[in-house]
């Protein structure tokens, strides 16, 4: 056990987050997602997307060098629709100072997931409860 860390941050997840470099992506997916896509799979079966995202955002810096460091999957045949899971994702992103997630087409999201550093499969049952996060950098405490 460690002090000050969210207990959702299990050892495999902490290792992945710490090992990621600037520009690497981690993808949080719902229970229905084909999570065999991606290089590394981490299981958070009993945790919904909101809870998992909150824990990860508590330690993950946002990439400020890209437009849209967070991406979600567009609703098939209704690309402008914002399902409840996406509204919850955006609320968590905003709470940590990240911009709202950018929606991308379903198969583009799948393709991007295949190149992610890790895929975290949650127990989220709401449809479209998927988000990709791009890691940024932690600036020095004092400028030289």
Describe this structure in words.
The longest helix has 12 residues, at 84-95. The mean pLDDT is 94. It is globular, with a radius of gyration of 14 Å. With 144 residues, it is of the alpha/beta class. The protein has a six-stranded mixed β-sheet, sandwiched between helices. The N and C termini lie far apart (36 Å). The protein is built from four helices and six strands; from the N terminus they run αββαβαβαββ.
In short:
This protein is an alpha/beta fold.
Main sheet makeup: 6 strands, mixed
Q: Could you give the distance between the termini?
A: 36 Å
Low-confidence segments: none
For the record, what CATH class applies?
A: Alpha Beta
Please estimate the helix content: 25-40%
H/E element sequence: HEEHEHEHEE
Number of strands: 6
Question: Biggest sheet, strands in spatial order?
Answer: 2-5-1-6-3-4
CATH architecture: 3-Layer(aba) Sandwich
CATH homology-level superfamily: RbsD-like domain
Spell out the blueprint of helices and strands:
Blueprint: H1 11-19, E1 25-29, E2 41-44, H2 49-57, E3 70-73, H3 84-95, E4 102-104, H4 106-114, E5 118-122, E6 131-134
Parallel strand pairs: 1-5, 2-5, 3-4
Antiparallel strand pairs: 1-6, 3-6
Annotation keywords:
144 residues, alpha/beta, RbsD-like fold, six-stranded mixed beta sheet, 6 strands, 27% helix
């Amino acid at each position: 056990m460690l002090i000050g860390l969210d207990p959702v941050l299990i050892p495999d997840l902490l290792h992945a987050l710490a090992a990621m470099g600037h520009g690497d992506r981690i993808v949080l997916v719902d229970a229905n997602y084909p999570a065999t896509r991606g290089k590394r799979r981490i299981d958070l079966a009993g945790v919904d997307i909101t809870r998992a995202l909150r824990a990860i955002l508590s330690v993950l810096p946002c990439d400020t060098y890209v437009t849209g460091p967070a991406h979600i999957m567009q609703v098939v045949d209704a690309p402008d629709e914002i399902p409840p899971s996406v509204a919850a994702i955006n609320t968590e992103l905003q709470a940590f100072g990240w911009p709202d997630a950018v929606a991308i087409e379903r198969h583009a999201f799948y393709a991007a997931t295949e190149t992610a550093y890790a895929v975290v499969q949650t127990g989220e049952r709401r449809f479209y409860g998927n988000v990709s996060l791009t890691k940024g950098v932690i600036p020095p405490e004092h400028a030289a």
